[in-house]
Design goal:
mainly alpha, 256 residues
Length: 256
């Protein structure tokens, strides 16, 4: 039957869900205010709110300063240990670095303080997945979809899980919803193509891969989509040639 999109599908959920908190610009502290830290030393973060400290950490992260990002968010967690957003953001940063155990601990603590935060539920589901706790991961995604039906990371990652479980119609429904919410997000088209292909709708799968190639920025993934389309074209040409040969073999002897 030729290659399936699912054969080359790496889970693209990371692109939509791994970092669920927005990166924001850092609000500068006024130059004439120099809050003191321990022992009276100048501490530029001493007067910052939890929200501002999160912004500092995420700014460091966005500019590739991962160590400073972790130092900043650790400082925020030490100063605001009961702030659900601080804990959730730190969990997201741990998750990005593959530190799954502390990530899960932070997500658990954050949800203990704010149980209906859909983005933290999505991120906790990703941590659960790393430990093979798929039932709990699906429960978190289901809850996130109930709380925020249009949250793309929730829908997308649930669709991926449905796909892996060969529940293709349910996967298709989630990817359809993703496309309806944001027609310019490329990943759902790739995964929707996989669902279409698994359900036998090659024409729709081809259309989705072509749309993915049109709007995606990731050259590696665009090449993967092109490779699948090329294989499908070769498969169709081979099937046509085989069909023609079979018809010739069945023709009556002596017929012209």
């Amino acid at each position: 039957p030729g290659p399936s999109v699912s054969d080359t599908l790496k889970r693209q959920g990371d692109a939509l869900a791994g970092q669920a908190r927005p990166v924001a610009e850092v609000s500068a502290v006024a130059a004439d205010k120099k809050p003191a830290g321990p022992h009276g030393a100048y501490d530029p973060h001493a007067a910052l709110s939890a929200e501002s400290m999160i912004k500092v950490a995420l700014q460091h992260r966005s500019e590739g300063r991962v160590t400073l990002a972790m130092q900043s968010i650790d400082e925020a967690a030490a100063r605001y240990p009961q702030d659900a957003e601080v804990l959730s953001v730190r969990g997201s940063l741990y998750l990005e670095q593959g530190q799954i155990t502390p990530a899960l601990e932070d997500f658990e603590a954050s949800l203990g303080l704010r149980p209906d935060d859909a983005r933290t539920l999505v991120n906790r589901s990703q941590a659960y997945r790393q430990f093979g706790r798929d039932t709990e991961a699906m429960a978190d995604l289901d809850r996130a979809v109930v709380l925020e039906p249009d949250l793309l990371p929730a829908r997308f990652n649930r669709g991926v899980m449905f796909q892996e479980q060969e529940r293709y119609e349910e996967a298709l429904a989630d990817f359809e919803h993703c496309v309806a919410v944001d027609p310019h997000a490329p990943a759902p088209y790739f995964n929707r193509a996989a669902a279409h292909d698994a359900l036998g709708d090659r024409e729709a799968a081809v259309a989705d891969l072509n749309r993915f190639i049109e709007i995606a920025d990731d050259e590696e993934w665009k090449q993967a989509a092109n490779d699948i389309l090329r294989a499908w074209r070769d498969q169709a040409a081979e099937a046509g040639a085989d069909g023609a040969a079979g018809q010739g073999a069945d023709a009556p002897a002596g017929s012209e």
